[in-house]
Design brief:
- Helix content is 57%, strand content 11%.
- By secondary structure, the protein is of the alpha+beta class.
- The protein starts with 7 loop residues before the first helix and ends in a 7-residue tail after the last helix.
- Bound molecules: flavin-adenine dinucleotide.
- Flavin-adenine dinucleotide binds next to β3, β5 and α13.
Length: 596
């Protein structure tokens, strides 16, 4: 079985030493009394839940998968999943960061995000059941009617019910404007929905009493395209006036998808036939209402890959210390043994350090962003809330796409460290690779995230959000301009900042002449800006590590070495990416379609 130690020390480092999160959270009335000890204690318990309850079910859940009873249309999750979910609910974990008005504990999203990183490390497939409930809760909390809030929020908050997002249909995934599911208004103010959805994560399962599906559908008089989409809450069991469960609603799982990874999560084809639902938000404004859920889910998907990167790293390091193969090129390092442990070989170290630098960089950026999300939602100053909202909007596609691309690279590297044993199921490594692959696809593919970043968040906004983030970086560079010891980090950071500014201007000008230039450059561009964000946070982490390296705590020695590795070995890929982005659209469009 794979091993896992909750990375509490690093989480605490980012939370308290890098971000100084507690004083920032205390500025908000809702978190005025929160202290570091409480946060640390919650996460310590959360880490135990992940390592002791979820990890033992990860491999068995992958092997067993979910099963559909074709007669009853009920889905059974792998052995142990239901009991683990009951423990999760019993422990009060679903309500960690939900609103006290609906039975929540009201802790910051930041704490929940760290908890979910650990859940993702130990069992991504299981974690998708409660993960989607959180996103559904957020959507209904923002856009639900008072009746919908009364019916659903306390149940989602406690975890007694779970949630899903039902967008995709066979002929449309990215282009939701083409969706066909119909919603007919009824005389009592409700709607009946008819259609077929595919690929619906956690669409049917045996973990909870009820499932609240948030379904995109089209009203009879809806305009064509994405301006004619509405959002509906459609429960598995109808909810009666007194809140109790009524009749079975007309939506069922017609098939389970066979897939590459996350076998423990049910990916359902959902058949809607006269399913009763209620409208969420305004008619034809469903996509913007759904964006609350999609943005939460995008941060969640980035967090999935952070979790997988961390657990893959931990297992690869343990193996590399233990596995004896060949002698070091520079002479034996373990002369008492028949060969050296493979951790002596430079390229094995490169693979391990890549995973480590991506995990720690991602943790820092993810926690930075979710702290801004908490401030966006709860800061008393309206201007500050807007500034935080802008930063979260800019960083969300980066977290989704950059983390998941890196997660794929990192889990693959960690599998490689195991040699052939990594490819064999027993080691658990190939499961991490398979599970990581979907993260680049769902919640809007990484290409779509890149288009969102470059097209919408940067160019359509005249670079305003990017400039605000750049100002953070420029301030740090200015503050540390005379700090000799930090120049090895500050100089490349400043250099990349200048290059991003120039590249953005160049792409903006090219896009005026040919909009396809955006599509040609976007994926490279997102990776470059992702590295800029990582370099900024790695430089700040290096500063702290330099200040504390003589404390005798090896944590800081390791942090500094990892920062140096990141700047020396990973950041330089930006030069190639910038060249590729600048090469433009011509090499992509030159080949006639018929000649492919
Ligand atoms: C395991 C799994 C779980 C899922 N869970 C859910 C869920 O819970 N709820 C839900 O609603 N959906 C879910 N999905 C669906 C998922 O979100 C979609 O598969 C995804 O958004 C892509 O849509 P598609 O598969 O139709 O691909 P398409 O939209 O057909 O895209 C195919 C390719 O074309 C590219 N492409 C499309 N348009 C453009 C463009 N304008 N520019 C450049 N490239 C473009 C895409 O990036 C992609 O590479 C899930 C899918 C899977 C496999």
């Amino acid at each position: 079985m794979a091993i896992y130690t909750p990375p509490l020390r690093d989480i605490q480092f980012v939370m308290h030493e890098l971000l100084g999160a507690v004083p920032q959270l205390n500025e908000m009335p809702a978190h005025a009394e929160l202290d570091a000890d409480t946060i640390n204690a919650v996460l310590e318990e959360g880490g135990k839940f992940a390592a002791e309850v979820l990890l033992p079910l990860n491999q068995s859940g992958d092997r067993e998968g979910c099963t559909l009873d074709r007669t009853t249309k009920e889905v059974t999750t792998p052995k142990g999943f239901k009991e683990a979910y009951a423990k999760y609910v019993e422990g009060g974990w679903p309500s960690l960061s939900t609103d006290p008005a609906f039975g929540g504990q009201g802790l910051p999203h930041l704490v929940n995000q760290c908890f979910f990183e650990m859940l993702n490390s130990t069992n991504q497939a299981w974690t998708m059941y409660p993960g989607l409930s959180h996103a559904a809760y957020d959507c209904l909390h923002t856009h639900g009617t008072p009746e919908q809030k009364a019916s659903y929020l306390a149940k989602l908050s406690s975890g007694v019910w779970t949630g899903t997002m039902c967008l995709t249909e066979a002929h449309c995934g990215t282009d939701l404007g083409m969706l066909r599911t119909k919603a007919e208004p009824q005389s009592d103010g409700s709607y009946t929905l008819t259609g077929e959805k595919i690929f619906i994560s956690s669409g049917e399962h045996d973990l909870a009493e009820n499932i609240v599906h948030l379904v995109l559908a089209r009203l009879p008089d809806a305009p064509a395209g994405s301006k004619g989409i509405s959002l509906f809450a459609v429960p598995k069991f109808n909810v009666q006036a007194d809140g109790s469960l009524g009749s079975r609603n007309g939506l069922t799982c017609s098939a389970l998808e066979e897939k590459m990874g996350i076998h423990g999560n049910s990916t359902c084809q959902m058949h809607l036939e006269g399913a009763r639902g209620s409208l969420v938000g305004a008619p034809n404004k469903g996509l913007s209402a759904m964006f609350v859920m999609m943005n939460a889910a995008r941060l969640g998907v980035g967090n999935q890959s952070l979790g997988l990167t961390e657990v893959a790293y931990q297992n690869a390091v343990a193996y590399a210390r233990d596995r004896l193969q060949m002698r070091s090129l520079s002479g034996p390092k373990a002369p008492d043994k028949p060969a050296d442990p493979i951790i002596v070989h430079p390229d094995v170290r490169k693979m391990l350090l890549t995973a480590r630098a991506y995990a720690e960089g991602a943790r820092a950026l993810s926690m930075h962003t979710v702290l801004q999300l908490d401030r966006e939602l709860k800061h008393p100053d309206a201007e500050m809330r807007q500034a935080c909202a802008d930063e979260v909007a800019l960083l969300t596609p980066i977290i989704k796409a950059f983390f998941t691309d890196n997660g794929w690279i990192a889990t693959s590297h960690c599998m490689q460290v195991f040699g052939g044993h990594g490819y064999i199921a027993q080691s658990g490594m190939e499961q991490f690779v398979r599970d990581a692959r979907i993260n680049m696809i769902y919640e809007g593919t990484n290409t779509i995230q890149s288009l969102d970043l470059l097209g919408r968040k940067v160019l359509a906004d005249n670079g305003k959000k990017l400039k605000a983030f750049g100002k953070r970086i420029a301030d740090f560079i200015e503050e540390e301009g005379t700090n000799e010891a930090l120049q090895e980090f500050v100089n490349p950071l400043a250099d990349l900042g200048d290059k991003v500014t120039k590249l953005t201007t160049e792409l903006g000008l090219k896009a005026f002449a040919n909009a396809d230039e955006v599509g040609a450059a976007a994926v490279d561009y997102l990776r470059v800006v992702g590295h800029l964000a990582f370099a900024y946070l790695w430089a700040r982490m290096a500063k702290i590590a330099l200040e504390k390296k003589d404390s005798g705590d090896p944590f800081y020695t390791a942090k500094l070495a990892t920062a140096r590795f990141y700047f020396a070995k990973l950041l330089p890929e930006t030069a190639g990416l910038i060249r590729s982005a600048r090469a433009g659209v011509a090499p992509l469009m030159a080949l006639d379609e018929a000649l492919f």
